[in-house]
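Re: the pair you flagged

First of the two:
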Amino acid sequence: MWRRFEPVSAGTSVSLRQYSTVRRVRHPLQTARTTIDLQELSGGRVLFGIGVGWLQEEFAAFEIPFRTRYSRTEECIEILRQAWSGTEFSHTGKRFTFDTVQVHPRPTPIPIVLAGNTPKALARAARLGDAWFSSGTPTLDESTSYVQQLSALRAQTGRPDEFRCYVRVADPPPTNSSDTETAG
């Protein structure tokens, strides 16, 4: 039965990342349970990517109002963090309400990687995320600007701790280029 998880738990040094789950389709408690299991099976190598979504037809297919995607995502993040804490909690929100539950008996830290390049997406990543992933393939200059904006936003929100940024750069310079070293 556990054979399908062997590559995950075999002691490899690969980080497991999911970029980006749009947090409107599954209940956040179901997502919390699944990510806890994967984090434990992988020995703590999961990075959990979340995007608010942009495709209106996708929301329509699940009968979820497109205009609620921002508040829904933020509420899901709040629930996930509580579920991963290992403590009992209940939740009464705009989108989800449930009585006291304890998803796991101990804390399971799972870094949240938020995606998006818009000013609102960057602000949300700085405020709620543990890392950031670019949308699309920005240029090196655009990527550098996003990283600088995130650094400033993190300082403004009182979160100047380490914050990883993951980007897919359009036409990256050669790996020995001083441009990439200068950009960080």
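Second of the two:
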Amino acid sequence: MKKISIILPVYNTVSYIDRMMECIVSQTYTNLEIILVDDGSIDGSSKRCDEWKEKDTRISVIHTLNFGASEARNTGLTYATGDAVIFFDSDDYIENNMLEEMASHLFERDVEAVFCGYSNEFPNKICFCCPKEGILTGNEVLKSVFIENGVMTAVWNKLFLKKALINRNSKKYYRFPIGIYIGEDFSWLADVLPNIRKAYCIEQPYYHWVRRHDSATGIGDTKRIDEKALTEIDAMNNVVDSASKVDNDIHYLAFKCLFELLWEKQKIADRENNLLAGAKIDGAFKAAIKAPLARGWKDSLKVWREKIILSMKCGGVPRGLILFVENLSFKRNR
């Protein structure tokens, strides 16, 4: 039985970590290396990590200063000795057979990664996101994170062969971006997925993403626009840059995601009357509008449509006119 390394960053989740750890240690796939990276917790999570280490010999604990989830994952990856790697969040939970089902596809098929469905669990409702079951090849792998009801822009529902996480040029692991606190998963995936030759999607929602008002991203009216939240713009710019090197359609999808993100951030900044955040977002708007277009004139038209929509929204153009432009389509020649 091949070994799977689980990397679990922990920061001030003492009220939630036990649930996730119970799920991990009770996995039906038993050959696990469980790496807890305590990211400078101050709420008792550090002690809880050590207590779990005493309960199970498969668990190791690394205590660090508070450098953020990206550095915690990078640290865990350097210690990982398994044949495959997966990253979880300590305030979520998983099905007990998640790794067994994913490993059966990863190790028995000719694939380098396996993705599964997940549930999006809000305080008052649960939404299920179940990607289409089957093989993804080439650019389909990266494209899958952009499409509706796809495999999500997070890392926690993705099991990778460890060797697939090594940059072919530098011969080192792809690193999560330091200084980005929201969207770091997406930024990292945009670097990794173009190099995945083949992946397999499982429709079953084995991962449970628990949405909390006090989480890093917040939900609904608790979404924030502080300095850390604004780093999501940097993450999305990284995604656009990576996508531009892959495929015109993916480049367009990345641009579209960037514009939607900027529009959402602007609305939050306006709600909070945050002038500093508004200024940074305004600068990001202008940079996005001036950014180079995709190759090919029809792809350029699609990107220009998004730029026009973005400019119209910033300028307070009536919604009816914006909807008209949004409904314009440009079909590519085959």
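The first strand starts at residue 4 and ends at 10.

-B.
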